[in-house]
Amino acid sequence: MTSTIEVGTTHCPSCAAPLNFTLDAVEGGGLRYDVTCAPCQQVYFHVSTEAPQLPAAAAA
Ligand SMILES: [Zn+2]
Q1: Bridge-based pairing state of the strands 18-26 and 2-11
Q2: What is the pLDDT at residue 8?
Q3: Taking all residues of the chain, what is their mean pLDDT, rounded to a whole number?
Q4: Cα of 26 to ligand 1 centre, how many Å?
Q5: Percent of the chain having pLDDT more than 70?
Q6: What pTM does this model have?
Q7: Rounded to the nearest whole angstrom, what is the distance from the C-alpha of residue 17 to the centroid of ligand 1?
Q8: How far is residue 54's CA from residue 56's CA, in Å, rounded to a whole number?
């Protein structure tokens, strides 16, 4: 069960085509980031747990 926080557009890391992303809050804590690229026929998703400080996220 997820609830959507944000929907927007970004660019595919492989083909640089514009695509849509969805950021969802995952029940129990954490975030799920979904990206679907039609040209690549691929779906990227990343799930992270909720943490006060994430070094990788802070650097991004
Ligand atoms: Zn792509």
Answers
A1: antiparallel
A2: 92
A3: 78
A4: 25
A5: 80
A6: 0.57
A7: 6
A8: 6
Handedness of CA 59, 35, 16, 40 (dihedral sign): positive
- Ligand 1: distance of its center to the CA of 39 in Å? 5
First to last CA, the chain: 27
Q: Which helix (H) or strand (E) holds 58?
A: helix 55-59
Q: What value does the mean pLDDT take over residues 26-55?
A: 76
Is pLDDT above 70 for 55?
no
- Hey, how many other C-beta atoms are within 10 angstroms of the C-beta on 50? 11
Specify burial of residue 16 (Cβ count, 10 A radius: 0-12, 13-18, 19+): exposed
Determine the distance separating the centroid of ligand 1 and the alpha carbon of 15, expressed in angstroms: 4
* CATH code, 2-59: 2.20.25
